[in-house]
Amino acid sequence: MTKTDIKVSIIGGHRLAGATLHERTLTVSLIGGADIDLTDVDIPDGAELRITKLSLIGGVSLRVRPDVRVAVHGIRLGGVRDEGPSEPGGPTVRVDAWGLVGGVNVRRG
Asked: Which of 1, 14, 61, 70 is least enclosed, having the fewest CB within 10 Å?
């Protein structure tokens, strides 16, 4: 059975670290982004960790290891900034970002 972490706030974002996350995470806020650090998470090759972000205003700042592929889906005003691997295979983090304003910024290291 897959566990889902749910984080909800009206104003203010969420700061999430790898040790506290399960395979799926849902973060919801009217105003506020999500700052997520997955550099300490060992995601097996072929596995997918899924993060869903719902907000009116607020983006996603995601930190992953250099070998992790990040797939971004959803609708939002704001772009996606990611210089990482885009080939299939290896570990994957899927980000579904839904909102009016806020992009997705992926940092590696």
From this structure: 1
